[in-house]
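User: For documentation purposes, I need each entry recorded in a consistent format: the amino acid sequence on its own, followed directly by the corresponding structure tokens. There are two entries in this batch. Please keep commentary to a minimum and don't merge the entries.

Assistant: Recorded as requested. Entry 1:
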Amino acid sequence: MIVFFYTMIVFVCALFISAVSFSAFVVTRQKMLALATAAFFFYFFDVSLVFRTAYVHPHSSADASLYSITSPVESVLLGAGVFGCLWAMQCRFLERSMLPAKIAVALFILGSAFAYVGINTPRDREFVFFTMRSLTMLAMVAFDAWVFLRTSDPMERKRQLTHMPLVLYMFVGALGTIIWNLYFLYLRPALEVTGPPPFMPERSFVENALVLGIGFWFLRVAVRRLQLFYESAPAGPTPAREKFLENEVHLFATRFSLSERESQILTEIMRGKSYTAIASQLYISPSTVKVHVHNILQKTSHKDRHSLVRDFWHGV
């Protein structure tokens, strides 16, 4: 009964993260949030596969189904959806092409298919089949570390370091999932613990914690986007929100060598103010504001104000 309610909580968390990410996507139109929406929507259905045995094979014996893999095709496709979206999010954040994400998904599908078809021993088959998920996650960590070590721009390295806690969490979580699988499939029987294993790789609490932990990280990002794009907050800008914007503008300005005045104007642009409002606040003419904006666009290689705002928040 406890495991049932635990699984329902995982369901709710996955759907909640997906829903908030979708709300932020509707407001901001950032593809990163669309990918987060899809990733955790896929994960909701992926977790639901643990219930399928009760409905599809309700009378299967425990011994016959101990090392069986429930819904292998659906498991591979949903896993590819989850980890493919996570890989795509990473590539967008690191400003790399989607080729590594496509290769990772292809290897995940091929590796999972080989494990299911090519390995005859049921226990080994289940271990390799579900460990492909952890290996895909570890590949993400390795790719992130490789990009970071090859980056020479100090500001870009600083931007990447803001997500290093998430990368370390992914590393620990992926290793923890592999250890979970090793214990319940190999170590526990070797210790001659009586009775069937209570939990198998299909119901891994460590994997749940890993994926939902990533989800709550992006939930925090989605909430920030909603707060920054909220147009009628009765209390006005909060100190925390203003501090966040100030820090991000400073990083952006340093990266593109913007002047102090250009940084001030950039800050007001990110607050959604018009040229006239910016000119009034800074005691300069609207034409001077336009000149500064033109210089900002040239330095940052943007064609218009809309693309500047979009890429600024994409890089946060």
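Entry 2:
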Amino acid sequence: MQANSLIDVISSLANMAGPVIGGILFSVVGLVPILCVSSGCLQGFCLRSLSRRQYRH
């Protein structure tokens, strides 16, 4: 039960801190750099997913 409580606490903190950090980041650097980083992460994920070959036996 303690592990579940710890996971719930961390999840609650992330749900509260995420928008705050996002708002601060938006006010400091603006929207365009955030979108560029987000787009780069998505492209990297897609390229990595496509480069992995999954074989079924």
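Summary note for entry 2:
The chain has a mean pLDDT of 90.
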